[in-house]
Amino acid sequence: MLTAKNITKDFNVSGKVVPVLKGVSLTVAEGEFVAIIGRSGSGKTTLLNVLSTLVKPDNGDLHYRENDLRALSDSRLNTLRQADFSVIFQFHHLLPYLTVLENSLLPFMRSIKPVRKEAVSKARQCLDRVGLADKADRLPGSLSGGEQQRVAIARALVKSSRVLFADEPTGSLDKGTGEQIMQLLSELHQDGLSVVMVTHDPEYARLAQRTVIIEDGLMV
Amino acid sequence: MNILTIPLRNIRRKPSKTLLLLLIFSLGVMSIVALYQVSGVVGLSLEKKLTSFGANIIISPAAEKLNVSYGGFQMGEMLFEIQDLPEEETIKAIRAIGLRDRISAVAPKLVTMAKINDTAVALVGVRWQEEQGIKSYWATDGSFPGRPEEILLGSRAAANLGLGKGDKVTLLGQEFTISGTLFETGTDDDTVVLMELSRLQSLIDKPGATSFIEVAALCAGCPISEIVDQLRAQLPNAEIKALQNIVNQRMASVHFVQKLALSISLVILITASAMVGLSMLSAVNERKKDIGILRSLGYGKEHVFFIICLEAGLIGVLSGTIGYLTGYLASFKVLEYLALVDGATPTFSFVHFLFAGLVFGLVTVLAALYPSWKGAGIEPSAALVAL
Description:
The complex is a heterodimer. Chain A contains 7 helices and 10 strands. Chain A is globular, with a radius of gyration of 17 Å. By secondary structure, chain A is an alpha/beta fold. A 6-stranded mixed sheet of chain A has the order 6-7-8-3-9-10, with helices on both faces. Chain A has a 4-stranded antiparallel sheet with strand order 2-1-4-5, covered by helices on one side. Helices cover 54% and strands 20% of the residues of chain B. Chain B is of the alpha+beta class. Chain B has 13 helices and 13 strands. In chain B, strand 8 and strand 9 form a beta hairpin. Chain B has helices spanning 5-13, 15-51, 87-94, 128-134, 155-161, 197-203, 224-234, 244-286, 288-296, 301-338, 350-367, 369-376, 380-385, and strands at residues 57-61, 64-70, 73-80, 85-86, 103-116, 119-126, 150-153, 168-171, 174-181, 192-196, 209-210, 212-217, 238-242. In chain B, helix 8 (244-286) crosses helix 11 (350-367), helix 8 packs parallel to helix 12 and helix 10 (301-338) crosses helix 11. The chains are: A alpha/beta, B alpha+beta. The A-B interface holds A 49, 52-56, 74-75, 78-83, 87, 89, 91-98, 102, 105-115, 120, 155 and B 1-6, 9-10, 12-13, 289-290, 293-301, 303, 379-381, 384, 387.
């Protein structure tokens, strides 16, 4: 479903070119749960960002289903991010001035047209599933880190994404809350969602069907 | 919930910053509106004062001219069928035009020839109150006639006749007392004898007749040609002439006040817009994270651009309406402070109120174009650095 071949990516840091990905290849099958592990600075987050189309690779092939992602227009990429992909980040990833319900409906608020009632109803169901039904009208600032992460997961559920990219989803959480989040990701995967998760915790990586290790910009 | 929810909620997120921005721009709008209102009233007041220095429209009976030459004898231009204007109907017609609120003074006159001590003089019947209203520069060594039996002499007429204040003269078979002599004006008034219009009408047996009527019109806000056209429609048998030089001179004074207000308004507007632009620019830099989240959720550049522009536009619309109301109220205080009210007052227009909201909304959107473009141009990868 999602294929990356010989991906390279350099960053310019203070005028110096730093190669971060040096020819990485990875395939994610439909409904697969893949964990990418590696040390800090190994390039795992950059790889996740490339796969989720948030960062453009310098070289290599990137395909999602029949789409060549490197050749897609900005508009098509936006549609893809809106419909098929969901990303959850390690830290705050919610708009602090929108309520929990509004944050979960954010992908549907791109136009003047009001969000459909069915979408609102689905969002409430999804918030219920992640245990936040009673906090739908609260602002993210009044939620714990774990609850905020669950809002992001609910957002992915609302829009029926096909692939969920998770960048250290438990990184800023305590162990108990982290386990709850991982449990939720496992459940979503069992429901058919493809999950690509970056983590540095081998214990959480074991919940994935497949684990790939990245070191110094290369797959090991 | 729609895309409008995002800027609306963000405005509420930082109330102190939003209020400060709103206050700055509202103050700018308030100053502009107050200046506009004050300049309008001052312009009108100035023009009213200028009307006391003479009329700018002359209404006379229509007459046909004929250049007569017979048997080699040149008789010059002969006027055919000169009629008088009926005073009451003509004034009524003048006061009935659509732009009647622009008519400041109407001064009817009846002209005839008479002899004083065997010397021919031009005798002009006037309504003293109206005449003094449009000729504030008149001054006399005595007093203006207060009774029908009193007359006023022009300076040259007085010199030719060898008469002065307090002298008695016989005119058209009646005795009159000279109440005073006009100081030299440099106009036709220097050569004539002036008396009360009704008295002259009865003396020459032309009740209610006038030879011509001088009109002082206020031209700010409408061209003199419009007033003349309306007068022509009301008085088809009269000849109506606008004294363009006088009009232009007066309008130059009025326009100066308005141009000055406009220039100051522009400076205020540019300053306020620059502040809005700078504020939006700093907001874009602060909100890279938000932009990153939106882009990761499939929001395109156009959506980000729209959200930032909308945020600025909302502040502009609010400032425009608040500024219009406060500016309108402030203009009363300014006029009161400057002691410039003079009968005229600022006017509230609901259309202008809505217009102010729209225009200043547009101005802030324009000011936010660069920050919006910059915000929209942030690639998700760059925004992710902030995450």
